[in-house]
Automatic annotation (TrEMBL):
This is Uncharacterized protein. It comes from Flavobacterium okayamense. It comes from the Bacteria.
Amino acid sequence: MQIKALEYKYFNHIPFSKIEKKYNTYNSKKTVNLTEDEFKSILSNLFTIKYLFPEFAGQINLKGFQMLNHVYFSSNITIEFGWLMIENLDRSYLNWYNELLNNSYDISNILLDNELHDFVEQALIDYMAYRKIEYGKFFLQRYTKVILDVNNIFNYEKIKKRIENTPKPLKLIADNIKMVNPDLSVDEYLFLMFIIKNAILKSDNAAIDYAFVNSIVKNDFFKIDNNREIYRVTINKTLNMNWEINKGRGGHKL
């Protein structure tokens, strides 16, 4: 199977609460026809819940509703990626997509619609076996923009040179993160390590990093989301400290 890289087109996600309010307030009919952006929003919502929480069993709990309505920053990234996948649907699913788009729905039960769930599972979730590296890259780039401003790193070029010239760049980054914050979990150290590595080196050849990010987000979604400020402080302190060169050999410092 040949899978083309996703092409970014546009993003106009509508929170579920707004869709629900619109039709519950202005339309007395039992079923309604959605606009295409509303329909894509519903699909990307379902994709997010099903991908991040595969144990989902047909019931949306409080956290699920909060996710649908943009309470969690990290779920917004996944919602946007789901939308991106919808914009790049495999041609074999376009007829099914258009049939579903033209259906009428009961808004109070739309998130439990079996055919929508089947579509999301087959047209989106099943493709994540091939898209997980793209998702990891997309998530890392979006998340990094919020917690790290490379332009504010006063010794950026020296750190970049130091990372490029060391035989074990990831260990170097991890050691410096631990000096700032020794209380993170292994997954958190890995996550911050990948953020720094990719922000500093800007390499397109980081498929393994992105695959790890995909797994970390799925395993520790709420930790990744809730600790955003801790990570921001840790990373910025790490990148603005003096990284030692030739430690223990009388070398100089950056």
